[in-house]
Design brief:
Layout (H helix, E strand, L loop, with lengths): L14 H12 L6 E5 L6 H12 L19 H7 L6 E4 L13 H28 L15 H11 L9 E5 L7 H12 L5 E7 L7 H5 L2 E4 L5 H9 L5 H7 L7 H8 L3 H17 L2 H11 L6 H24 L13 H10 L2 H19 L4 H16 L1
Parallel strand pairs: 1-4, 1-5, 2-3, 3-4
Helix pairs in contact: 2-3, 5-6, 8-9, 11-12, 11-13, 11-16, 12-16, 13-14, 13-15, 15-16
């Protein structure tokens, strides 16, 4: 068994994935392309960045060299840590610098320059966020699509000789934001990978990726983090042990979500999700519509809405836990201070009804992921929950 106690120090959990990749490095069997699959906040991007650091150690990725990477003191490691190393390329959604046909040639050039500078500023802003906290939630500018021009530019860069020794690492995230044109442009790189180049695609699932992309990558699966791991991750970032213990059960295995909750009014959020559930159960159309309008307003974000649905599910799960464990369920409940409300749900409904409710919640998330209109998805969810629990 490889010693991983001091390797990948910034990664929470995922020991199995660490073992797989460290073994591949030490045996010289690292694949040319990997697909990191798993839920948000499980450590896929931090893991990819840490792997880039290990491969850029001045000692090189030869067998036995990983031990020298633990110091993280050589110039290569410091540059990768700042995500500024010439061997590290990040590809993620950026807004398109458009040109206006009505502009005069000089004005058009100046406008184009301004938009390119804006794009670079957006790139640097995201990089700065990752330097500070690799588990940060990122909201991408513009359409949120990775453009084929970004991949073509990458191909041009990789066709040149590297500016530094070591392995060039390209990280594409979220890979499901590539459309067909972008994916087809990437296939050339996957089919004819340059020497000393590692490509890492990061996605939550393979469902929105082209099969030809998936088949050319070796998959590494990331599991949701345990409550203990999320708690430890929060504590190591300066969150008090008491606050970390109360937030971790609500994060659904995501350190990213847990970090968000440290800055939110968690109690207010859990309460509004309970109110939505109550309104749906009794068929209060006026009240459910109020919540739907609030949740899908100008600040609508699909990931945020899916998390609210998850929070509704936590109330249902706590009710199921109470039905299963009774008086001994205290330390197994996920909603802090929500035992009484969960007990009322548990007393009123059967396990079968609660299971069906969880199924409907998951179906609504799948609908959102398939680009269903959020208002329609939530309205349908409220109707189906009412039918199950009324």
């Amino acid at each position: 068994m490889l010693d991983i106690s001091n390797t990948f120090p910034s990664i929470v959990g995922q020991e199995h994935s660490k073992q797989l990749l460290l073994r591949a490095i030490r045996t010289g069997r690292l694949a040319h392309a990997y697909l990191f699959i798993g839920p948000e906040g499980s450590g896929k991007l931090p893991f990819a960045l840490e792997l880039a650091r290990v491969l850029s150690c001045e000692q090189g990725p030869e067998p036995g060299a990983l031990g020298h990477c633990e110091c993280r003191s050589c110039i290569q490691m410091r540059q990768i840590a700042k995500i500024r190393h010439p061997n590290l390329k990040l590809i993620f959604p950026l807004s398109v610098p458009e040109r206006s046909k009505s502009d005069e040639p000089r004005e058009r050039g100046e406008a184009s320059k301004e938009k390119i500078e804006a794009t670079e500023a957006a790139y640097n802003e995201i990089v700065a966020m990752l330097e500070k906290e690799p588990y940060v939630e990122i909201k991408f500018p513009g359409s949120g699509i990775i453009r084929k021009e970004q991949v073509r530019e990458l191909l041009n860069v990789l066709s040149l000789s590297p500016d530094a020794r070591g392995v060039r690492v390209v990280i594409i995230f979220p890979a499901e934001r590539m459309n067909d044109a972008t994916s087809n442009a990437l296939l050339k790189l996957l089919e004819e990978p340059p020497e000393q180049c590692l490509l890492i695609l990061i996605a939550e699932s393979t469902r929105e990726l082209l099969p030809t992309i998936v088949s050319r990558c070796q998959q590494i699966h990331f599991a949701p983090l345990s409550v203990a791991q999320v708690t430890a991750g929060l504590f190591s970032r300066g969150v008090s042990s008491e606050k970390a213990a109360s937030i971790a059960p609500l994060a659904n295995g995501s350190l990213t979500r847990a970090l968000q909750l440290t800055g939110e009014k968690t109690e207010e959020l859990t309460q509004e999700c309970l109110e939505f559930l109550r309104a749906a159960v009794v068929g209060n159309v006026h009240k459910t519509n109020e919540w739907i309008e609030r949740w899908t307003g100008e600040d609508y974000n699909r990931a945020d809405l899916e998390e609210k649905i998850d929070f509704v599910g936590l109330w249902v799960r706590d009710a199921m836990t109470i039905k299963a464990y009774g008086e001994t369920s205290g330390d197994k409940l996920q909603m802090p201070g929500g035992r009484q409300a969960a007990e009322r749900i548990a007393a009123r409904y059967t396990i079968s009804q609660l299971e069906k409710t969880l199924y409907e919640l998951e179906e609504s998330k799948l609908a959102l992921q398939s680009n269903a209109m959020p208002v329609m998805a939530l309205t349908s969810l409220a109707i189906r929950v009412h039918r199950v629990l009324s």
